[in-house]
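Exam review. A common question shows you a sequence with its structure tokens and asks you to describe the fold in words. Practice with the pair below. Do the first one on your own.
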Amino acid sequence: METVRLSGEAIEAVVLPEVGARLHRLRVFGHDLLRMPSDVEEHLRDPFFWGSFVMAPWCNRIAADAGLVGSRRVAPGPNFADGSAIHGQVYARPWERDADGTLWAVGGGDGWPWVYEVSQRIELRDRSLRLRLSLVNRSTDAMPAGLGIHPWFRRPVQVAIRGSAVYEANAATDPRPVAVDGQFDLREVGEVPTDLDATWTDLTEPPVELRWPAVGLRAVMRVTAPTIHVVAATPGNLDAVAVEPQTHAPQGLRRLVNGEPGGLAWLEPGAALGLTVELAFERFRRS
């Protein structure tokens, strides 16, 4: 399998263009931060629980057969155990790579009836990693659109998600968020409760901070997009925590159709939806 290796002052990254242009490895100051299989082929066998991958043209779950949206039928089919269509279409398919390092793929025209192009450019600058994502509607009518990334950060890791409102359950999400409280109040850095799968909104800047106290490493995540949501998933059977910046809330297609907050965006023909995620790293003294 083709691997693309990037290196900077403090950061090494390994990208797999053939498997959704995903980050297989992210190594900072000599420490691996992503859940990484020993065999890169495992990303194909189990695409949802390793590394960091792009979600497009939607994030999280939508109905496997959503019916008519406008004049087009949306029926991408199930790809997850709960019967939903999860994390879009490009997370494991081959992407192309241009001479300038931009990775891109074309999708849709099937169960997702609109044709689209998604691209990613990965930049290492001093002690930061920047992911620039773009989703372009290549169809002749408006397309629902969403973008996100899905990194699995290795435990032990502490997390802050500085959102004051939350959708408490991604699998059966309510129409509107509620004020954070109890285990869903993650505005201070600390251990994340096990078995959460929720989405935060009403975020302050920066929306996310991560710390690995055992190795004295900290990261601040900054996100630039028209709208910002952050998902956290903490399955008890995994040695990692997912912290996922994205442009919409779970069940984004239902939200768009029903006029609920946090829906997918309407993207006009030829228009682009952008998402930039930057992780800035620094060392700190271990106590």
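Now try the second one, then compare your answer with the model answer below.
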Amino acid sequence: MTDRKYPGLSLAAIMLAALLLTIGTGVAVAQVVASATGSGQIHVSGAYRTFTFSAQTNSNNVTTGLTQGFNRGIPFAWEGSINCLDVVGNIATMSGFVTYANPDPGPDGETVGTPLVFQVIDNGEGHKDTPDLISLTFFAPDGPPFPCLQSIDGIFANIPIENGNVQVHKQ
């Protein structure tokens, strides 16, 4: 896209100029203070499941992220937005809401808007480290949102992740 008055001036150049102007005026940009990312597969009662997620909290205490999973044993696929991330050491607990479910409703009544929560443990990198862990993803159809706490009753990351990795960071 070019401006007729200034041929060759791209939208990217305009955005870069605006960014430099913002930085030059001393406007504070929120920094990432906590993050959790991961993907992999697990087996639960013989059923193969895959997952992926990414979440971050900035210095303004705003959390954004996405998660998705697929339980091939049912089958049931879902996606969700993450609006809460609690990091303590190498453990991250995340919660949010379902944004897509197939089938809709899911096997336990999961549908768009259903609260969700799960937890992961980052046990390091490399083949000699203990495998990273994940909990089941818990859904609360027709329930209130889950609190953003490390100590939610019944949420324990205790399932070894196969062929995947989790990374948890807090600045």
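Model answer, second protein: The helical segments are 11-24. The first helix runs from residue 11 to 24. Full marks require stating both points clearly.
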